[in-house]
Amino acid sequence: MTATSTPLVERVGDARLPTAHGDFRIVSYRAVDGHEHVAIVEGDPAGRGVLGRLHSECLTGDVLGSRKCDCGDQLAHALDEISNAGRGVVVYLRGHEGRGIGLANKIKAYELQDAGLDTVDANTAQGLPVDARQYDVAAAILVDLGVESVRLMSNNPAKAAGLVEHGVAVDELVPVIVPLHPESEAYLRTKGERLGHVL
């Protein structure tokens, strides 16, 4: 970014956030594309080797507790781990619903999965990308918080590559192991076999 370029994100608010997983700070950001994101912070994340997670918005998993995915379980696990570590950050990325295809298209993908397609083919059958997410905003948020490198809690190597591409070093990819539910078994197998996730 040059001195005259517009920053990708603007910090808007910073408040205390007591949760079932611990007491955090929540920092809100507005990106140049209009999406609003938050960082859920424990301790001082500035510096190297901070425990972190990039969490893609998932209404069905995070809010409704859907068993078609493991998103809600991964978010809870990350918050617990960061709380226990006493230092870390979850960047909650809005606009990433359904690997970036949006909520309505994700529900259509669910319909196609109910008819027998896997998660990859359900996207492409709609003429949509398999994964439309970008991680430039996530990197900008981490930089704003002073993070130089992360121990990234993720099973998705593409998230690590996205951070590195945008200037945040990844010291380690920390696997996220959560309970397997029968309803998500085929979905997770496809993520491993076709999307390169480490499961």
Automatic annotation (TrEMBL):
Lineage: superkingdom: Bacteria
Active site: residue positions: D131 (proton acceptor), R133 (nucleophile)
Binding of GTP, residues: R53, L54, H55, S56, E57, Q74, E97, G98, R99, T119, S154, K159
Cofactor(s) needed by this chain: Zn(2+)
GO MF terms held by the record: 3,4-dihydroxy-2-butanone-4-phosphate synthase activity; GTP binding; GTP cyclohydrolase II activity; zinc ion binding
Enzyme Commission designation: 3.5.4.25
InterPro entries from the UniProt entry: GTP_cyclohydro_II (IPR032677), RibA (IPR000926), RibA-like_sf (IPR036144)
GO BP annotation list: riboflavin biosynthetic process
Keywords, ordered alphabetically: GTP-binding, Hydrolase, Metal-binding, Nucleotide-binding, Riboflavin biosynthesis, Zinc
Broadest EC class assigned to this enzyme: hydrolase
GTP cyclohydrolase II domain span: 11-175
Binding site for Zn(2+): C58, C69, C71
Metal-binding listed as a keyword: yes
CDD domains for the chain: GTP_cyclohydro2
Annotated metabolic or biological route of this protein: Cofactor biosynthesis; riboflavin biosynthesis; 5-amino-6-(D-ribitylamino)uracil from GTP: step 1/4
Cofactor note: Binds 1 zinc ion per subunit.
Single GO cellular component term: cytosol
Key word Nucleotide-binding present: yes
Catalytic activity: GTP + 4 H2O = 2,5-diamino-6-hydroxy-4-(5-phosphoribosylamino)-pyrimidine + formate + 2 phosphate + 3 H(+)
Pfam families in the cross-refs: GTP_cyclohydro2
Coiled coil spans: none
Family in the record: Belongs to the GTP cyclohydrolase II family.
Role noted for this protein: Catalyzes the conversion of GTP to 2,5-diamino-6-ribosylamino-4(3H)-pyrimidinone 5'-phosphate (DARP), formate and pyrophosphate.
Name of the protein: GTP cyclohydrolase-2
Underlying gene: ribA
